[in-house]
Structures are given as structure tokens and as C-alpha cells.
Amino acid sequence: MIEGIVKTASLLLPTASSSVSAIPTVVPTPAEYQVSTSLGDRTLWIVFVAMSVVSLAFYAMAFRVPVQKRLFHILTAFITTFAAISYYAMANKDGVSMNHIVIKEDHKHTPPTYKDVYREVYWARYVDWSVTTPLLLLDLSFLAGLNGAQILVAVVADVIMILTGLFAALTADGTQKWGYYAIACFAYLVVIYQLAYHGRAMAMSKDSKTGTFFNAIAGFTLVLWTLYPIIWGIADGSRNVSVNAEIVCYAILDVMAKAVFGFWLLFTHDSMQSTSITLEGFWANGIGKEGTIRVGEDDEGA
Questions:
Q1: Counting runs of H as helices and runs of E as strands, what totals does the chain give?
Q2: Quick one: 26 exposed, middle or buried, by C-beta within 10 A (0-12, 13-18, 19+)?
């Protein structure tokens, strides 16, 4: 009789093979840190040294020509000088901040989880670009012979492009990020219009050599500049590439767009008289006696 009771109880109690499924559990996703490693750090130091050496070379080239003809030399040397300072700051981790992004991950049978992503943003790079790209535009504008209004429009559009790119890199909201990105791309189109349309027309009106040279160096610059927003989109924008890859890509572009551009411009400028700009007056001679304040002298007839 006892055996019968045990058998009956075993039929009523649930066993391990019961159809009741296990309660799903949610495991928190650990935070992800996207930072540079030794590869990225070494790249920053290498470019700092390269930009410093190139800057010294540009200053040396400037001293080989009269002060009246140093406009292109000074502007180009300033470009690589600011770039060297920027890379020094980034290499020392002084121009870097962390951008915190929260990514929502939906699941089929469990509640959504949230992933924290921390990515390094090298804001010193944007400070560099906000100074060096207007200087580079001045090089191209003076080479083509653009007027003051056209130069102002190109420079302001360029600054808008850089600042909105910085805002996009620092924001955590996806909608705002790509909104800033769209504004930056529109501003870049304005820069392209000023150089490709007005700049080309003005350069071709000078002579064939100047026009050909401007078309080549401006086209080279615009191709490189077009690659910057592409890299931004897959790096800071969508975070599909590592910080190391971002650093290496930007380093290659910066060297090409600043150092290589500078040597090409200055060597060609020195060999072509048609591209030479001579500045007299205050640039070469300073402030003369005319217009200065005289102290202790009485005006005639006073």
C-alpha cells in the first residue's frame, strides 16, 4: 500500500522533464571603451615630429626670398606649425575627451539592455582644423586671385564646417549628431563652389600656367578634404572603425593636405613668376611716419 501511495505522489509532482520552461535571465552588457593603443600613440608622435621638421623647412624657404614675396611661405609654415602643436597635444592626451554613448539593444524574449560605449574624441584636431584650413584656403584664394567677398564666404563656410563637425563628435544623441554632420557637409559644398567655380575662373583668367597649376593643386586638396567626412562617418559617426585606424587615416590625410601641399605650392611658386604676390607697405616696411602720433611737437599755426 505504501508503494502505491509513493507512485501516486510521483505522478502528481512535477519532474525535471516538465513542460514548464526556465525563466529567462538578463545579463548586463559590460561597458566598451574605444581608446587608442600604442599604434595610435606612436602615430601621433611621428606626425608631430614630421610637422615640426616640415615647419622649419618652410621657414627656411621663407628666408630665401624677400619679405615682400613671403606671403605664401608664411601662411604655409603657419599651417604645419599649428598642426605640430595639435599633434603634440593629442600625443600627450591633453586634447582628448571621452564621449559617452548609450546604445539600446532589443531582445526577442527578454527586456532590452543598454550598452555604454566610451570613445576618445580628439578635440584638439578640430582646433587645429579651425585654424589651418582657413589658412590653406587663403593660400588657394590668393593663388587664384579671388576677391575679398569670395574669400570671406569660403573661410566662414569652412569654419562652420569644422565647428559643426566638432559638435557632432561630442554629442551623444544620434539625431543631433547626424544633423550637425549634414550642416558640415552643406558648408563644405559652399567651399567647393568658391574654389571650383570662382577660383578656377579667376585662375584661368590670369594665364594658362597659373590656371593649370591652380586646377591641379586645388583638385588635389578637394579630393583629400572629401575623404575627411567619409572617415568621420565610419569613425566618430558610426564607430565602425577603431580609434587607432581613425588616427592613422587622419594622420595620412593631414600629412598629404598640409606638408605635401605646402612643398608643392612653395616649390612651384618659387619657379613661376606669374604666381608671385608682392606686398609692400605695412607688410614689408611697417608703419611709417605718416599717420603716427607725434608727442611734444606743436602743429604749425597752432
A1: 11, 3
A2: exposed
Contact 151, 145 (CB under 8 A): no
Q: Which residues contact 294 (CB under 8 A, 6 or more apart)?
A: none
Q: For 143-295, where are the E strands, in sequence order? A: none
Amino acid at 67: V
Could you tell me which residues come within 8 angstroms of residue 59 by beta carbon, excluding any fewer than 6 positions away?
A: 73, 77
Residue 285 confidence (pLDDT): 59
Question: CA–CA separation, 189 vs 185, rounded Å?
Answer: 6
**Would you give the distance in Å from CA 289 to the centre of its chain?**
44
- Give the distance, in angstroms, between the CA of residue 271 and the centroid of all CA atoms in the same chain: 31
pTM of the full predicted structure? Answer: 0.81
pLDDT at 296: 52
Mean pLDDT by runs of 10 across the 302 residues of the chain is: 54 54 62 85 96 96 84 93 96 89 72 79 95 95 91 96 94 87 96 93 87 93 96 90 94 96 90 60 57 52 48
Q: How is 22-87 classified by DSSP, letter by letter?
A: PPP--PPPPPEEE---HHHHHHHHHHHHHHHHHHHHHHHHHTTS-GGG-HHHHHHHHHHHHHHHHH
CA distance 148 to 55: 28
Helix (H, G, I), strand (E, B) or coil at 98: strand
| Concatenated DSSP letters of 112-140 | -EEEEEEEEE-HHHHHHHHHHHHHHHHHH
Q: Name beta bridge partners: 119.
A: 34, 99
Q: Please report the pLDDT score of residue 82 as a whole number.
A: 97
The distance in angstroms from the start CA to the end CA of the chain is 140
